[in-house]
Amino acid sequence: MKTDVVEPTDLARSVISVPPLPRGADGTLDRQETRKLVDHLFAGGVSTFLFGGNANLYNMGFREFAPFLDLVEDVTPEEGWAIPSVGADFGKAADQIDMLRERDFPTAMLLPAASAATPAGVATGIRRLADRYGRPLIAYVRADGYLAPRDLAALFDDGAVAALKYAIVRPDPAEDPALSAFLDAAGSAERIVSGIGERPVIAHLAGFGLKSFTSGSVCIAPHLSTAILHALKGGETEAASLLREHFLPLEDLRDAYSPIRVLHEAVRLARIADTGPLSPFLANIEDPGTLDEIERAACRLRDTTLG
Question: Please, are residues 136 and 162 in contact by the beta-carbon 8 Å criterion?
Fold first, then answer.
């Protein structure tokens, strides 16, 4: 498992998967099913595993965090890179950082707070957490006004942030003044990652020059998502666009019903791994018609071949 300093090349070496976190029927972490999911991703060319929102770490208790880290260390391939997440609130993140200092993870992502946050306060919090950790964090922006571009630039310059996961949804991802502002402030696209899956990836990588992207649906078809990244690296925008079309039916369902909950069910219904029950405050999808839609889209995506 990667333990050395995070470089821009690490961010672009693989699609950054954002998988769900399987649990047993009793709600406890399921090591065997998590390993199945990670092995499936690795076999499809994915070597980076970011456990964050899709793993419902927002709702993970402090006492479960150490067992979770044990599990991640155990299932990550030797050639892989695992990234845990902390937060979203400052106090919880600080306590988790104290635990992470005893581990070899080279970075962790700070989940974005949904309330009780200001741009200046977020920047100060990131800096204090990075100082406490002794290592840089990955910042995560998914709403306008959460973090100021000038503060991000300062955090990059001071080594407090290793990367930014940019995930603000736009009607047209090619028109995004906030992303342009972050790029201008950072002075480079190397450490800014497209964080909204396959839908905006053409605009973000081919248009804005980003070098990598995160994905949840990669858990269903890692071979296709990897092919999109390779095509974009090779300047083959049309090929990447054609590949992306295969993901849109499942992405449409995620947008309609819940990105986290749909992905959780899709991995199970595609028979990749039994993800089990979602931990509160989330709940599994139970409507038979919705589950049927998810199963058909997930299996179709899983079975799509290259060429």
Answer: yes
Please list, residue by residue across 52-66, b when 16 or more beta carbons sit within 10 angstroms of its beta carbon and e when fewer do: bbbbbbbebeeebbe
What residues does each domain of the chain span?
Answer: 8-240
Contact 119, 126 (CB under 8 A): no
Helix residue ranges per DSSP H, the chain: 8-12, 31-43, 62-75, 90-100, 119-133, 149-157, 177-186, 201, 222-233, 237-244, 248-257, 259-269, 288-302
Residue 21 · residue 273 · CB < 8 Å = no
Measured distance CA(226)–CA(238) in Å, rounded: 15
CATH class held by domain 8-240:
alpha beta
pLDDT at 114: 86
Q: Give the C-alpha distances (Å, rounded to integers) separating 23 from 27, 50, 118, 291.
A: 5, 17, 34, 19
265 Cβ contact list (under 8 Å, min separation 6): 275, 284, 285, 291, 294
Helix (H) or strand (E) holding 16, with range, is: strand 16-17
Residues of the chain with pLDDT under 50: none
pLDDT score for 127? 98
Look up residue 51 and give its amino acid.
F
- Distances in Å between the Cα of 179 and the Cα atoms of 99, 168, 170 are 33, 9, 10
Q: Classify the C-alpha dihedral 301-262-43-32 as positive or negative.
A: negative
Give the DSSP letter string of 171-210: SSTT--HHHHHHHHHHS-STTEEE-S-STTHIIIIIIS--
Strand partners, 192: 164
In this prediction, residue 135 carries a pLDDT of 98
Q: What is the pLDDT, as a whole number, of residue 307?
A: 72
pLDDT of the residue at 5: 97
Tell me the pairing of strands 137-141 and 108-110. Answer: parallel
